[in-house]
Recover the amino acids of this structure.
């Protein structure tokens, strides 16, 4: 198993990515890594960590950075020496490389991967699937969360199949409960897209479709996978994250206003820290771009060392559990009807 | 000013609606009300409150209830004696009635109002606009939040105009900062709908368009009005509410786990209660159905007395400040180009 790490583009810099990857490397004898980015910077970190010359570590110099401001098409065309585009090239051309972890710009990563890395046969469009924690201690996936903003009912069916295989393979969830994001739970709810997708999902035997879900129930623990177009999936994931983080921030600032509050907060410090960690969905893994012929994990831009480690572990687990083969197999059954059209 | 109250359909029952309305009635000498629902039940509450025979109060018997399970088209056709459909009829036919407050099923209310109450000239489709609190103590409106799930770029422009007039008239916000809900802040982001709506919003001189907004910034206080299709608006409003409420619930259950936490929470009790009230967006008013020829306020299903009072006050304020005339005026300029098509 060999994973390439795009070391630039995250908010916390190269050292953070390298150290997170090393943590993961130390766990598995059969893992090796390629660090792509500013060679001097990477080697500096490796020296500090006493890992220069490690036979399981390669370094590739590509110091340019793709940012969120770059238009994906421009970045792909003009920033060939960027860590992200070079990482994609390595993933594409080096057959010994199985996976990519990046904390860089989602738009360019998704576009470059879709264009450059082949899709698994039968898959129309790769989809992004982030993982969020649920209130009862479980997780829930959202597919698609932004790779495809304009979608068809058939694509929603594919997202359901892709996400189901992913949750089974990477998290051992058997027969994930799949729900369609909608404006109400009744079967006839929604816009034209949802109304057309509902019967397709209901008829598909290889998935465990449980009906429509209202967005307020996302974290309820009643569902394992939420199927949606990339636009509303993006709104769902980011507003949930945003609301929780802002509420914690408000509580923090409230506490500073009164001495009695400060005293109370001392007793609750551990609880608040645990809640903050709980809501920090980096801890649960990156967003996986499903449907490509290689494993691609997009970590949050603000990923810390631990979050990078989690992304790497996630990639390792998916590879070892044969995610790509399983998606191919499923594509034969679940998605076959699709291809016939 | 006369307001009709649909007393059934909310989670907390008729008495709650009647008492909330009475609170508002007591504030304004020029306000009168019509209570529609179960006559006996309404009169029972009025008797308890010592208000039987009050010349400013009318009671209309229509005891059937429209629920969230009813299909809107069926409810409109078959439940003519329901409090909601009868309230709409009164609003339509009685020229002395200016406004309707209901805490019942949103789908049926929206559909019945759209069908039965005329639209203001130039308005294609009425839109729902709920109000949420922002982190810095302000408010933000979301238009549309679910009345229209399939929309055009021109409709998004109308939502921007309608919402702007509403925030100016009901809340005194001058030149509301309007943002388009999108998957990123850059101008070229989004699906076909957003890409087509962006230039329309940018060119429209009567609104203060400030660009795209990512959903995580909804509560940041940087925007006064978020423009979106009803599908993603519904996702945005409900996931924000859901995440905040679930987080508070988790904190509450965490606190019960340890004695030290319980002690700390005693010091913070007031703060937690304030935060809960802060996040409870009922306190900021109901969702207004904008674009109809009369004022329609949809309160949250779980509205308590205070929330009903707030909805009634909101309707009163909009009427007194001439919302409907202002929408008509604006329709002449902002929406004129629309009608020409």
């Amino acid at each position: 198993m060999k994973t390439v790490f795009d070391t630039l583009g995250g908010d916390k810099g190269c050292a953070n990515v390298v150290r997170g990857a090393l943590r993961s490397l130390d766990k598995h004898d059969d893992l090796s890594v390629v660090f792509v980015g500013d060679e001097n910077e990477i080697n500096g970190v490796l020296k500090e960590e006493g890992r220069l010359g490690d036979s399981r570590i390669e370094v590739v110099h590509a110091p340019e950075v793709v940012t969120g401001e770059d238009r994906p098409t421009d970045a792909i065309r003009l920033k060939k020496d960027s860590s992200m585009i070079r990482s994609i090239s390595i993933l594409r051309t080096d057959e010994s490389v199985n996976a990519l972890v990046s904390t860089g710009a989602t738009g360019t990563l998704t576009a470059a991967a879709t264009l450059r890395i082949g899709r698994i046969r039968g898959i129309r469009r790769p989809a992004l699937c982030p993982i969020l924690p649920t209130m009862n201690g479980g997780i829930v996936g959202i597919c698609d969360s932004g790779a495809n903003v304009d979608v068809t009912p058939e694509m929603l069916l594919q997202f359901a199949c892709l996400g189901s295989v992913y949750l089974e393979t990477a998290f051992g969830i058997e027969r994930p409960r799949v729900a369609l994001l909608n404006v109400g739970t009744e079967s006839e709810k929604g816009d034209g897209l949802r109304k057309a997708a509902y019967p397709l999902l209901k008829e598909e035997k290889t998935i465990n479709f449980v009906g429509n879900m209202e967005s307020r129930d996302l974290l309820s623990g009643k569902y394992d996978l939420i199927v949606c177009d990339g636009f509303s999936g993006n709104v769902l994931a980011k507003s949930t994250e945003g609301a929780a983080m802002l509420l914690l921030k408000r509580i923090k600032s409230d506490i500073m206003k009164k001495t009695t509050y400060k005293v109370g907060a001392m007793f609750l410090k551990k609880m608040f820290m645990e809640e903050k960690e709980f809501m920090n969905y980096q801890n649960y893994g990156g967003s996986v771009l499903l449907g490509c012929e290689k494993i691609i994990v997009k970590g949050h831009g603000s990923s810390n060392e631990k979050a990078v480690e989690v992304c790497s572990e996630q990639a390792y687990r998916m590879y070892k559990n044969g995610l790509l083969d399983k998606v191919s197999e499923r594509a034969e059954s679940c998605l076959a009807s699709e291809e016939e059209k």
Remarks:
- The radius of gyration of chain B is 21 Å.
- Chain B touches chain A through 61 residues (CB under 8 Å).
- The first helix of chain B runs from residue 14 to 25.
